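**Folding the chain**
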Amino acid sequence: MGRDEDIKSKFLGTWRLVGVDREVADSGEKLDQGVIQTGFICYTNEPRMMVIIRRAIPGQPGQEITSYAGPWRIEGDAVIHSVEMATREPWVGTEQVRGFSFEGNRLTLSPPVSPDYVHGSVTRRHLVWEKL
């Protein structure tokens, strides 16, 4: 089995979101203290993926749902999600690039540093997933 196939096999299955770390890129200020985020991401061998994340602030009405699905692939140290459908219409037809690392039964996905539409600042994010 080649390196990419070995890495791909580690992704396969369903993962539950267990942590999100979001901070302002230039200051390191932690954001989203007290925000409840739940979600699942699934990778199949076809290769297809789908993700859904729910973000809610205790005591405030409403919630935010982010979801998308499409093919996925490994390129070097990144997993690339080719978005075919999404709750955020502008994402359709894009590629969502995520750095990744594995530690035990956990997978950390890290989007590139980018503007954050929630906070209006440039942020760094790490999403930690646990294999079910």
User: Anything to note?
Assistant: The radius of gyration is 15 Å. The mean pLDDT is 91. Residues 22 and 32 are 7 Å apart (CA to CA).
